[in-house]
Amino acid sequence: MEYKRYPEHLVFGLDIGTRSVVGTVGYRENNNNFVVVAQYMKEHETRAMIDGQIHDITKVADVIRAVKIQLEQQVGRKLTDVCIAAAGRILKTVAVKADYEFPSETVVNEEHIHSLDLIGVEKAYDTIRAELESDHIHYYCVGYSVIRYYLNDYTILKLEGHKANKISTELIATFLPDEVVDGLYAAVEKADLQVANLTLEPIAAINIAIPDKFRLLNIALVDVGAGTSDISITKDGSITAYGMIPYAGDEITEAIVQKYLVVFNEAEAMKTACLRKKNITFKDIMGIKHKITSQEVLESIDDTIRKITKSIADKIIELNGGKPVSAVFVVGGGGKITGFAGSLAEYLGLSYERVALRGEEVLQEITFLQEKIKKDPLLVTPIGICLNFYDQKNNFIFVNVNGERIKLYDNNKLTIVDAALQVGFPNEKLFPRRGKTIHYTINGTKRMVRGELGEASVVKRNGEVVGLSHPIELNDRIEIIESTKGSDAVYMVSQLPEYSGTISIIFNGKTIQCPKFVLANKKLVSGFYNIQDNDEIEILNYYTLEQILEFMDLEYKETILVNNMTASLEDKIYENFSIEYELPEDAFEEEYASSQEEMNPAAQCIKDIPAESMGNSNNNIHNLQTEPSSGIRDMYIIVNGESVKLSKKKNYIFVDIFDFYPFNLSTLGGSKLITTINGEPAEFTSPLKDGDVVELYWKS
């Protein structure tokens, strides 16, 4: 092997396809032009690969080794590292709908929307595992696309800034099976190579077919191969969705086979001849020679082309949230047939010039040192695999999460949440959890008391505290301390607004203040009773005459008058009712004083109440109020120039400010809520520390 010198480092790329393996070796010149030094293709001798997935690792490794040896002879040096790509057809796509309900009406912010999308992706992950009935296969989320959002079950274009009790999303998420990645790595390593970079075939094609300046647009790339047509959607600079339909070039070839009774290889030759000849000569299976025009062949396959392009158009619209894209680029050999691009444009409702076959024109910055190689759409993906090495994007990276090394697919927008999802960190333990809520009724009206909100999860990236949406990079050390659940709701009868005040009764001309009677599930309870979930609370606004006399240690007399009328023990005594009772003057004064002491709400005056219904004693309540909780501390911060004290918690996050600083979130005060800590943008889950300077206001 003759050693050769090259001006730059050589990059070796392999396009490991279902039918063949294409190897490309080249280098980048002047940061723009890519020079292809050598290229070699070898077909699989057996069905070692099916639909882009390796079934026989050894057989595929043998083909890879043969390609490697041929290329080594051409370039004059050993090849040890290789760039590869996973086929788009093995990606798994699932559509789901996810909901998020607020405890009460809330103004939706970016953090809420981010959480909703995460719930959707997590649900999609669970769905795809359930569909495949396997808990052992792991998947990498390589992209997701929101189809639509809902506000209180009504479709809406943008959620942020609206008040909502419930928000929902419909999204499509795409996953790459771990076993496919492992199979590719195993075959390459068995051929004495190491993987330098792994990407996805649709991304490799986009590197060539769609220039950077176009990727912010909503564009579809369709790679029409032999057995499948792979589809990817790009928007806002990244790929948002992937899809595949099982129709492509072979479907067109089969139509020619059926029409003209020829073998498959003959039909394939007739199909490609349509692109360069006016007349085609062929022999059918009976040995009869025929001569027809290319136009006749094209007319015979028109229905098949329309079937394929309609399926592709329908899939593009589905992946793009129910609407067509702005433009479509077609690559791959199957899309070269005359009429393919025009038919696809028709079904998408686009002008013909908006659907274009990308081949020679996108390979202008590619130089081939081998003279016989023609710039063709077939070469887009193999060269794109090489170019992806220079970007080092859309690759797999390793990060460390809570001591565990995990592999993530880097889609250029990885965040802490993606790492948490991949490691299986429960979504509900990322965000503060509220304690148990008490639902009860008071005099027939439904009410509830919410539990306290717990502490948010604490996230550190390389030792620095960050938010959940913070970007992550290769080899980051991530520590996630799960959020806590707040205390369960505790609410005593004495805290009810209806319980405040007393019932005033006029007894022998003097006003007696009587505490209100309370029933919990038809049983008498005191003001110290802790309300339980689903309790039916009834606060009585009356006493019976019998209860009044019992508290005053008086016997019933037939001469007793209520509002100047004779009364029985069962009669109800309401606010400001008068009672006349024959009693010596000195005895009445004594009973009056005694009754007032007994009827003090803070005393245990209702002797009919069972001891177990009394709840906490005064001493217990006092202890609960005065005994400090371990770790609880006060904190002082500056909010909009004003000193604010935060108390009763161990740690504080931004959302805690609203418990101590008067700010109306229930009414939209502008187009956007501005939240900063020490001049930096802050999220509701951002941690606070002593002395922080906070800005909180509505932006017009």
UniProtKB/TrEMBL annotation:
InterPro entries tied to this protein: ATPase_NBD, FtsA/MreB, SHS2_FtsA
Instruction: Extract the Gene3D superfamilies matched here.
Output: 3.30.420.40
Q: Which residues form the signal peptide?
A: none
Question: Taxonomically, which superkingdom?
Answer: Bacteria
The UniProt keyword set, sorted, is: Cell cycle, Cell division
The GO annotation for biological process reads: cell division
Q: Where is the SHS2 domain?
A: 11-209
Q: Which SMART domains match?
A: FtsA
Q: Which SUPFAM superfamilies match?
A: Actin-like ATPase domain (SSF53067)
Q: What is this protein called?
A: Cell division protein FtsA
Q: Which organism's genome codes for this protein?
A: Anaerocolumna aminovalerica
